Amino acid sequence: TGVEIHPAAKIGRRFFIDHGMGVVIGETAEIGDDCTLYHGVTLGGTSWDKGKRHPTLANNVVVGAGAKVLGPITVNDGARIGSNAVVAKDVPAGATMIGVPGHVARSSKDADARKRREFAKKIGFDAYGVSQDAADPVANAVNCMLDHIHAMDEKLEAANAALKKMGADVDVSPLPELELYDIDSVGKKEPSHAKREGGEGDVKTDN
What we know:
Blueprint: E1 3-5, E2 10-11, E3 16-17, E4 23-25, E5 30-31, E6 36-37, E7 42-44, E8 56-57, E9 62-63, E10 68-70, E11 74-75, E12 80-81, E13 86-87, E14 96-98, E15 103-104, H1 107-122, H2 137-165, E16 182-184, H3 192-197, E17 202-204
Parallel strand pairs: 1-4, 2-5, 3-6, 4-7, 5-8, 6-9, 7-10, 8-11, 9-12, 10-13, 12-14, 16-17
Antiparallel strand pairs: 14-15
């Protein structure tokens, strides 16, 4: 089969070898539940010393094609080993190891990607095309601006109240009333400003 598993290796439940060819699992290797190995993976040792010489994979670990995990190290829960990586040190839970020697993928890239996803969601961008229930980006943007305006109004009112308590001469003349309309966006929840004020009426954008 092209898969060599030492009979002394300890293997958990639902262990899966995808494209089983060139896989080697050493004598003192331990594999937890729900782990996946791809072709060309080695769970090997780095010495001939007695005792623990091979890696321990915790639960839900995925090891990519061609990766080498070496020595008595621990790959903790939910970690990912990238294809062709060479890992010889412990891997934190949930981390992704890449490269030679293996190192944790930069968290700053993850943060940047998360910011991009949040911004795309805010403006209603869909990288895989527009479906019938996709949010209208124009309506979404207008709703965000209205939320921001109402938040600013609340802060100004609080600041004016504080200044008035301190004896400052504050202009309390009412501002022009801002009518609240729900900008109709298919697939988008009612904006928070409409929920706060209970505005009536609909303004729809042409699609």
